[in-house]
Structure formats: structure tokens, C-alpha cells
């Protein structure tokens, strides 16, 4: 199985603006490696995000460490994305 570097994050609070959500996700996930891209779509992906890290190891470290941690009052739910994001 190919190692993945894109994470699927769900259970995000709907009450946060997109810019604030993006910047806070960037700051949080940057603690575990280089964030390549963050995808949010307030209409179709409400409460969800895709974050691409620079390596599978960084993505795995962020997933293991942050899964279940509170983020704006709700526990983060993090798993590997079924599809890799392309830039």
C-alpha cells in the first residue's frame, strides 16, 4: 500500500469563518511538518478539510498526535484521505 501525505479532517466547527479556520489549521498542522495545501469548501465540505503535508511521515505524525484533540470546542477526527491532493 502506498504511503499517503493527504489527511481528511472532519468534525470541524461550522461557526468559524473560512479564513480563520484555514489559518488555524495551518498553524496547528505546521507544528508537525510542512503544510503544502489546505482545501476547504464551505458549501460542499462543510465541517471538513483536506490537508496535504510534504511527506507521509509528517502526515502520520500529525494524524496520530492530533486525532481527538479539541479544536474550537470539538474533537478533531483525522484519517488519511482516500485520494491524494495534487497541487
Automatic annotation (TrEMBL):
Q: Which domain of life is it from?
A: Eukaryota
Stored InterPro entries: Nucleotide-bd_a/b_plait_sf (IPR012677), RBD_domain_sf (IPR035979), RRM_dom (IPR000504)
Gene3D superfamilies linked to this entry: 3.30.70.330
Task: Give the keywords, sorted.
Answer: RNA-binding
Q: Name one GO molecular function term.
A: RNA binding
Q: Where is the RRM domain?
A: 5-83
PROSITE patterns reported in the protein's UniProt record: RRM
Q: What is this protein called?
A: RRM domain-containing protein
Q: The organism's lineage?
A: Eukaryota, Fungi, Dikarya, Ascomycota, Saccharomycotina
